[in-house]
Design goal:
Chain A: One of its GO terms (cellular component) is plasma membrane. Chain A: Residues 3-250 form the ABC transporter domain. The complex is a heterodimer of chains A (257) and B (317). Helices cover 40% and strands 23% of the residues of chain A. Chain A has 11 helices and 10 strands. In chain A, the strands form 2 sheets. Chain A has a 6-stranded mixed beta sheet with strand order 6-7-8-3-9-10, sandwiched between helices. Chain A has a 4-stranded antiparallel beta sheet with strand order 2-1-4-5, covered by helices on one side. In chain A, a hairpin with a 2-residue loop joins β4 (56-61) and β5. The chains are: A alpha/beta (257), B mainly alpha (317).
Chain lengths: 257, 317
């Protein structure tokens, strides 16, 4: 078990963004987190990466409690994420963006950086090489010197994935990677995520594109109003009464509102 | 003949330019991690007073006094830098400006040590110390065809030039490395930088401290170039002036700081012949620039174009 979310709740000034959510992700899985807008999916990501701490509950990563660990330490442990609204470093080249991702797997300090020690030069070379490999993987090698802000939308999304991969994660969190993509881009995203899985990286993905989710994920958790509605394989989820209700809305809609 | 060209007045202006470049870089460095610090005048004062007092009272070598001045300013930078992490943008600017004023007021009021608003005089002058030292070995400036005061100012300029080059070298090398990438990623998106595994606290305090150290260094050099200092040398006006150097030249690139400090130190001197109007012109130049080119003279795009680097498709920002 890579990640275990145990009875996690998050309360924002009296509003329950997440309420007693529990699920766990096995190694090598592609795990989907779906639900209507405002269901608490991104909040879950923010709790896992400790952008903020849960009100209660625990997050266990590879058997270790990471609930209160600082954000950057969590990345060091091997969890890296992308953002729903892309957060690249805009005035940095694509290559450098990815190299920043390799930060926690390198350790040159001020002294060795300024004096270009032997180990620093070797490390820079390795970082560059790895960044180029990752750019090639996401199909952006030809844009390596382009500022991130000048890339097309779909390219930016893929660059963000490359940057996250540069930190050598064992768990990759993708927040709506297909948002705003056309069908062709979505198809190549599918291939990319499958490739990431074949590299031995576990993937937790938030996505609204249902055909993609159903095709991609091994298991899925459905959140609704901060609570876990259902968990299971894509087939189970698709035939789950409660899920259909939450998405399509039945007579209960008025009750919930 | 060398002696005819070397005019002490020009050399002195040149030495002010070089000190101002150091000060401009001391704003530029924290800014490269997104921290707008207006504390440079204060840190400069700390460096100046530390080195001046040490060399006056304890007769220690200048180089140690200057280093001590820079280090004390740097340590103060760490002490101030950690709590100011909670602040950003304008709030940090105001807090650091306040810090500078506090430091100045301490200089004014701690009369037993700092002689109050009269300031310190009789600070060993760098050039003269070196001249005396060289004379001990039987050297005379006349041997290379210079008058004593020409030699004194020439030595100062050479030392300052060396320090400025070393500083620029340091900052540029640091920028093109893992450390520099971390600083600029923090500047561009702090949250994203942290989730890429960057310890923001460390890097922000690092660049803030480097800025304080540099300002302290510039202050100590200033004290030993001028020979006298008073609290008014490190006032709020100085803080704003230093900021203007960096903003005018372009705060995104180190060339901007260097250019801004050089140009804006020269303008009042060049315009000396119309003495009454020169600061009006200075002001007009600033207003025009901020209206036409708010990012300063130099920015990354301009530099890339100058380098002939292939520019990416997208439009001009």
């Amino acid at each position: 078990m890579v990640l275990k979310i145990q009875n996690v709740s998050k309360n924002f000034g009296g509003i329950n963004a997440l309420k007693d959510v529990t699920f766990s992700i096995n190694e090598g899985e592609i795990y989907g987190l779906i639900g209507p807008n405002g269901a608490g999916k991104t909040t879950m990501f923010n709790l896992i990466t400790n952008i903020f701490e849960p009100t209660s509950g625990e997050i266990i990563f590879n058997g270790e409690n990471i609930t209160a660990l600082k954000s950057y330490k969590i990345t060091e442990k091997g969890i890296c994420r992308t953002y729903q609204n892309i957060r690249l470093f805009p005035q940095m080249s694509a290559l450098k963006n990815v190299m920043v991702g390799g930060h926690c797997r390198s350790n040159a300090g001020v002294f060795s950086s300024v004096f270009r020690t032997k180990s620093q030069r070797k490390e820079e070379q390795e970082l560059t090489k790895k960044a180029e490999e990752l750019l090639e993987l996401v199909g952006l090698l030809e844009f390596k010197d382009t500022f991130a802000e000048n890339l097309a939308y779909g390219q930016q999304r893929r660059l963000e994935i490359a940057r996250a991969l540069a930190s050598n994660p064992s768990l990759l969190l993708l927040d709506e990677p297909a948002a705003g993509m056309n069908e062709k881009e979505t198809d190549s995203l599918y291939d990319l995520i499958k490739m990431v899985q074949s590299m031995g990286i576990t993937v937790l993905i938030i996505e609204h594109d249902m055909p993609l989710v159903m095709k991609l994920c091994d298991r899925i958790t459905v959140l609704n109003f901060g609570e876990k509605l259902a968990e299971g394989t894509p087939e189970e989820i698709q035939s789950n009464e409660a899920v259909i209700e939450a998405y399509l809305g039945k007579e209960e809609e008025e009750e919930i509102a | 003949m060398l002696a005819d060209i070397i005019n002490p007045y020009f050399l002195q202006i040149l030495s002010f330019i070089l000190i101002n470049i150091l000060l401009a870089i001391s704003v530029y460095v924290p800014l490269s991690s997104g921290q707008l610090s207006l504390g440079s005048a204060g840190f400069m004062g700390v460096g100046a007073y530390t080195s001046a007092l040490l060399t006056i009272h304890f007769d220690i070598p200048l180089i140690i006094g200057i280093l001590a001045g820079a280090c004390v300013a740097g340590i103060l930078g760490i002490i101030v830098g950690i709590p100011s992490l909670r602040l950003s943008g304008v709030y940090l600017a105001i807090a650091t400006l306040g810090l500078g004023e506090v430091i100045r007021v301490i200089f004014v009021n701690w009369e037993s040590l700092t002689k109050g608003s009269i300031g310190l005089t009789g600070i060993p002058q760098m050039g003269r110390e070196i001249l005396n030292f060289a004379k001990g070995f039987g050297f005379d400036p006349a041997m290379i065809g210079l008058k004593s005061n020409q030699f004194v100012y020439l030595v100062i300029v050479l030392i300052l030039l060396l320090l400025v080059i070393a500083t620029i070298w340091f900052v540029v090398r640091q920028q093109n490395s893992r450390v520099g990438r971390s600083l600029s990623s923090i500047q561009m998106d702090e949250k994203a930088a942290e989730s890429m595994g960057i310890n923001i606290t460390y890097y922000k305090v690092l660049s803030f401290t480097q800025g304080a150290f540099l300002a302290g260094l510039a202050g100590a050099l200033f004290a030993h170039v001028m020979g006298y200092i008073s609290p008014s040398d490190f006032s709020y006006h100085r803080a704003v002036e230093i900021l203007i150097f960096t903003v005018f030249g372009g705060s995104e690139v180190i060339l901007g700081a260097v250019f801004g400090a050089t140009f804006l130190t020269l303008v009042p001197e060049v315009l000396r012949f119309i003495s009454d109007y020169r600061y009006i012109i200075y002001g007009i130049v600033l207003i025009i620039l901020m209206a036409v080119r708010p990012q300063g003279i130099f920015d990354i795009h301009l530099l890339n174009r100058l380098k002939g680097l292939k520019r990416s498709k997208g439009g001009v920002r």
